[in-house]
Amino acid sequence: MLTFVACQGRSAPAPAASDTPSAGLGSAPITSAARPPINAPIAGELVDVPGGSFHAGSVPAEPGRLPELEPRTHAVELGPFRIDRLPYPNDPGKAFVTGVSREEAKRLCAARQARLCTELEWERACKGPNSDRFASGPDWDPSCASSASACASGFDVLGMGTTMREWVQSDVIPPDAKTPRRAVVRGAPGSDPPSAHRCARRAGVDAGLMAPDLGFRCCQGAPNAAIVQEPKLETTFEKTRLSAERLERLLAEDPATRRLAKGVVFFREPDAANTVIARGPGDTKGFSFTVAPLLYRPIAGTEYLVLAARSGEKTSFVVAYYVLGGDAYKLAASFILEDEPGPVAFAYDNYIRPRFHFSTCWGCPESAGTSSETGKILFREPDEVVIVQP
Fold this sequence. Notes:
Structural class: mainly beta
Low-confidence stretches: 1-32
CATH topology of the largest domain: paralog of FGE (formylglycine-generating enzyme)
Helix content: under 10%
Shape: elongated
Order of helices and strands: EEEEEHEHEEEEEEHEHEEEEEEEEE
Distance between the termini: 20 Å
Largest sheet: 7 strands, antiparallel
Radius of gyration: 25 Å
């Protein structure tokens, strides 16, 4: 949920945006969209998944997404493979085998001249040919949580992410050699919230875990070598460029910022940043200052575009966008400074990841009678930015 906090006096928050993001970019709506199986399952049935490209990973701002585990949506090419239509023992007349470690799951697959699926094979089989978010389709259907055979993926594989977690062959690879690897599980039990049933959802657990909601299924064919590229911690702040015309189009896309989408002017770098410092005591307190748009990366797997500008003659604003990839963005937060011509500068430190500042008069006391608007851009886990003014 987006958060907007008003400052006192001349400034006011942007109107609150809808809590329901655009289709495919955010919420996990509950709809009646189940895809029934083409045919009733039979024992030992395998599904041929063709080779090809699909969209792996998840979109920033999706509910339930953990950016440190789920990479941003990207294209992955996989070769063909075969997958059990149901979890092991792949027999609709028998109960699924659960409560076994990953090594035992590997052994049971090998006894059938098969293997555990890689996590990207599992995700492709779940997303189907259209790279759906859920096995049930673009939206989650709660009826899928009642029976593994009730819903089929686009490839007609049953029970993926609907009623249980499943072992896969892959590991969560830590960023350093000191941290032990964790075994990846995909899927979720039926009692979990809708967002947990996304095909891209991944979690890391101890490979020896034996749990009643944790089973597996087998794959056949040469295992695909492609692996999930673990999100990495990058430079916290990086200056970037965006044209005023592109910003106006972005502002016009969301009701919270639509009224700002005209006469947009960026403040001049570095003169405007120096003006903000010079209006106060002149002590930068060790921060770097800029009025340029910033790419902000507080934790691994997150990236926001944060910028300040002026709309018309007397309205300044600060906005933050989720970076979706390429030239695509989605509004994360906004703050409007009424009757404030600016400039507005950012004060940041690459070693301070959870927050940075915006200001029109750095270090100016409110009692000085000088135009002064200072606030913070804050990161809140798992994937949220808020703009506040004390």
